Amino acid sequence: MRVNMGDKIENKNINNLEIKKINRTNIYQLLRNNSGLAKQDIVNNLHLCLPTISQNINELQSEGLVEIAGSIGNTGGRRAKAYGIIKDARTAIGLDITKNHVAVVAIDLTGSIIECVRTRKKYERTDEYYQYIGNLVNTLIEKANLNREQILGVGIGIPGLVTQDHQTVFFGEILNFTNATCSEFSKYIPYKTALFNDANAASFAEIWASKEITNAFYIMLSNNIGGSIVINNQIYAGEHLRSGEVGHLKLVPNGKQCYCGQKGCVDSYCAATVLSSATDGNLESFFSLLKIGDKEASRLWDEYLDYLAITVNNLHMLFDCKVILGGYVGEYMGDYMEEFRERAKKLNSFVDNADYLMGCTYKTEAIAAGAALNFISDFVNSI
Ligand SMILES: [Zn+2]
Predict the structure, then answer these.
(1) What is the pLDDT of residues 327-341, one digit of tens each?
(2) Are residues 119 and 143 in the same domain?
(3) For a Cys staple, 157 with which of 56, 161, 294, 371, CB 3.0–4.6 Å?
(4) 263 CA from centroid of ligand 1 (Å)
């Protein structure tokens, strides 16, 4: 009997602690999404009592996470203090490593990019290269004037498949860096670091930015094709951490050679290089030619969109969710989205539309931002 009562008391204590933590998280999240709320607004939104809110706000203020952001009220009446989060109370840094470029961004607790640097640098698995990215991170910190004590970590987005602990590349054909480790990338980066697959990092950023999306397939149309499956706001990694590799779905039997060793993969028909190879590797030039009606550019684009329409339709048939078009080509899709929807809808077996197609929110630096956001997300969830 006594044991049972004791158990009950212990459970009650745990529950109280849990409730306290949930209240605190909810108050912080509400302020993170709506800056400038009075205590009464928080009462109305969360249906908590005023003393609970006051106590939590005091705590969050003393921890340097929340501040008075102004005041609200009618003239003549007593003005109420408005509270908001201190956006740069913590920051995170993200890197995007590609074959010929490195981008680095700093983001705040709202996910906004504070500072960004993109440079041309060929990837090499050498000490000189890792020193270079270490210097680049340092330059960014100085440029953005970040408080080093408040940097949560540095996420490194790479074009490869990464082990569950985010420490090792287990498939890295694109940069020929299979078995590369996080510790070699971060030899000159004195912060907590983690490796992220590029497409998964970018989809994480897109889901973070679009609160109404819970399920989506993110297709990354960059110099290689990547993909990421998001179910209930979580990335579905797959049993061997190789999920979402839409780039290696077979599109054309015995078709063009793919870097993976197979033939006819989506990557060989829908990568950005299929277009940019017509303009010396410059995708912007390709779209400029397309805009002025260049014949060869139009022919290439027409063929490209047909293959892409088959690909996205297959994804939609399989997952029945939004398909987000990201990556280098995703940046330019805005002007062509309606035309592309027309093509995709003709392939739809069930309804006469392709409303599942979405453009991307982060036009550039989705990978770097997403890699950094993993640290922000962990921190915000721990509050
Ligand atoms: Zn392939």
Answers:
(1) 999 999 999 999 999
(2) yes
(3) 371
(4) 7
C-alpha 280/C-alpha 288 separation (Å) is 13
pLDDT score of 1 more than 80: no
Total residue count of the chain as it appears in this document? 383
Question: Looking at residue 62, which CATH number applies to its domain?
Answer: 1.10.10.10
Identify whether 318 is part of a domain.
yes
Ligand 1 center to residue 308 CA distance, Å? Answer: 15
Residue 265 CA to ligand 1 center (angstroms) comes to: 5
How remote is the CA of residue 247 from the centroid of ligand 1, in Å?
Answer: 6
- SS3 state at 244: coil
Residue 70 has pLDDT above 90, yes or no: no
Q: pLDDT, tens digit, for every residue of 295-326?
A: 999 999 999 999 999 999 999 999 999 999 99
Does 2 have pLDDT greater than 50? no
Q: Report CA(159)–ligand 1 centroid distance (Å).
A: 14
CB neighbour list of residue 202: distance below 8 Å, 6 or more residues apart: 157, 218, 220, 226, 228, 326, 327, 360, 362, 366, 367, 370
- Residue 100 CA to ligand 1 center (angstroms) comes to 21
Ligand 1 centroid to Cα of residue 249, in Å, is 7
- CB 235: neighbour CB atoms within 10 A? 20
121 and 74 within one domain: no
127 CA to centre of ligand 1 in angstroms? 30
300 and 348 within one domain: yes
Whether residues 122 and 170 share a domain: the answer is yes
Same domain (yes/no): 329, 197: no
